[in-house]
């Protein structure tokens, strides 16, 4: 069953610490996203310069810090261990994870668009083209699969398709 993620460094749902990750990735924004954030912060100078150049510079610095904090705080993480899968804020026990499949190019575009199931859990970023779909086998979970952006789709699929600890 899908559960909210536990904070990094804390115990998993069973009370014990999670095992060492087989896969760990942060979906950091691309260079152009940071460039847009910098441009937006610089635009604050133009907006506030008629009032005061000092106010414009202070406003731009505050906007840059605020945008950087928001971009960093909203960066999801994908972690695969022997017992758990975490994608963004959601996590699930590996025993409920079925097959994973990687998609790139046009196939990834189709998975994000016409072939997307509206009940799937989605953790996608527009600046990352490849996606991986992860089948959910828990019969009590109405989510048929998860779809996540990743820069390393083959490595994520390999980590997910290796047998989970205590697999039946």
Features:
single chain, 168 residues, alpha+beta, four-stranded mixed sheet, 23% strand, disordered N terminus
Overall mean pLDDT stands at 88
Radius of gyration computed on alpha carbons = 20 Å
How large is the share of residues in beta strands?
15-25%
Secondary-structure-based class equals alpha+beta
Question: Could you explain how this protein is built, in words?
Answer:
It is a single chain. The protein contains four helices and nine strands, in the order E-E-H-H-E-E-E-E-H-E-E-E-H. The chain is of the alpha+beta class and 168 residues long. The protein folds into two domains: 20-25 and 78-161, no CATH class; 31-73. The strands form two sheets. The chain has a five-stranded antiparallel β-sheet with strand order 1-5-4-3-2, with helices on one face. Helix 1 runs antiparallel to helix 2. It is elongated, with a radius of gyration of 20 Å. The model is unreliable at 1-17 (pLDDT under 50).
